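In the current project phase, the collection of sequences with tokenised folds has grown. A representative record is quoted in full directly below:
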Amino acid sequence: MTVVDVVAVFDTSSIIEIRRSIQNSRKAVVFEALAQLVRDGRLHFPKEVLKELERRADPENPDQQVIWAKRTVSLAAGCPVPFETVRDVLRRVPRVLDPDKQGVDEADPYILALAIELQKVGKQVIVVTEENRETPTKMSLRTAAGILLLPSIPLVAYLESMGIK
């Protein structure tokens, strides 16, 4: 099994990380490489990721991350995520939801549910996330993925493994 056989499920934090970790002169190349992975069916994210990006963006002047996510969401979020799978994720890792974000539809349980659904159809899956900070009331996405036996990796390591520089 090589990394090119793996399907990635991206978290909002990793899409945002492109802003910090990638040189401005390389961002267009990285976004195009990621868009190609979406077109090839090797990169997914649930529509809730786009919603999180939009909540943080200036609607009058969206950043590259929002533009890329809007452009790719129809394919990236093309795999249906049954509510039963989301409910099962929340039963198993309830602290993946932030209790301080009442009334906000967080992407984390949908990311995990999407990864599980992709596994169910025989895909080798990896969760791409920067989230690793734990609090007494909030479990990181990386920890929740581990509990669900889903491997995870940060953006820079994922890009390196895919030969995207």
